[in-house]
Amino acid sequence: MENKETILKISDIASNFGINEVKNVEACHIGHINGTFFADSDRGRLVVQKINKGIFTDPPSLMDNIMAVTQHIQKKMLEEGISEQEISRSVLEFFPAKNGKYYITDNDGEFWRISKFIDGTRTYDSGTPALLTESGYSFGRFQSYLSDFPAETLTETIPFFHDTAVRFAHFEKSVASDVVSRASKCEDLIEKVLSYKETAGKIVSMLTSGELPLRVIHNDTKINNVLIDTATGKGICVVDLDTVMPGTLLYDFGDAIRSGASAVPEGSLEFDKFVVREDLYKAFYEGFSRGVGKSITKTEEENLPLGAFMMTYEVGMRFLDDYLSGDTYFHTEYSEHNLDRARGQLLLADDIMKKKDSLLALTKNI
Ligand code: GN1
Ligand code: MG
Fold this sequence. Notes:
Elements: H1 4-15, E1 23-28, E2 35-40, E3 46-51, H2 59-79, H3 84-90, E4 104-105, E5 111-116, E6 121-122, H4 129-145, H5 164-177, H6 187-195, H7 197-200, H8 202-208, E7 215-217, E8 226-229, E9 235-238, E10 245-247, H9 249-260, H10 278-292, H11 298-302, H12 304-324, H13 337-354, H14 356-363
Antiparallel strand pairs: 1-2, 2-3, 3-5, 4-5, 6-8, 7-10, 8-9
Helix pairs in contact: 4-9, 4-10, 5-12, 9-10, 9-12, 12-13, 12-14
This protein binds 2-acetamido-2-deoxy-1-O-phosphono-alpha-D-glucopyranose and magnesium ion (MG).
């Protein structure tokens, strides 16, 4: 249970959405960016979020993106004959505020939104092959529902989000300026990041050349961004839609492998266990390719292991960059948190690179 001040704050936010009788306020510590709370109310269980406006600099456009994307998916599900009841468990629903928008700003200029909590579901940071297949299907189907979404109507919420070459250039600057004098504490990891200079720009250049098709994708497919039905184990709903933007299918495949197919989850300190589990990789692929359907191209298929490497390498580099920059981006709980996260991810990236041919072979005949 949260303190009195937090309960009052959340109740006050909710009242701006016409929601009353707020109780059982609980902070959720899963994401690294937004502030998230769960609460019960006269309108059911809620997810109340403060949007991190340091990172998402245009929250009104971000909410426009989310409303357009969720309405598009709802419409397609209706056309498929899926019942309204099932759709309301499968697609995030946001409450309109009294101001007619899907967010409010408080006295401190912070942006808040509220969505419905989907009962009977939970998330996992790691899982079994069955869970990976379910998550894969949910993310794949999400992408397939958006295959005809007009990409040009979306605002790019974070420009260059998965442009690994741009992130590499930023990283080099952070190493050079070493603003909090931490570079000497992580020379081995800095070397590791720099050693992949040639590979860093590979996916972006394949997008630029047209070898890889641009699609509307989720862009943040951590395995805990799929709600799983606690009774049936089925993937129910894809959440965290803040970064839905154009990109390549490889990013969504890759980020899910990074977070879900590692022998240990992202925050682990068991560094010798940051290896990709082939059973989990294969299980995710099975669900994902079924969800995406026939539209996947040969080049995409052949580069799935590169996608898994790139997303793992990129986030490892981002954690290390944030460590070198004084922990200004990701929420951290202790001073070496970003360093530990970076170490785990860079070890996993190395392992994926080493196994990339066998990973490709795993999915050849599915
Ligand atoms: C952030 O906040 P969360 O957990 O959804 C980050 C992702 C990273 C992830 C690493 C907007 O996601 O890109 O992969 O942390 N989101 C943003 O855990 O930067
Ligand atoms: Mg996110």
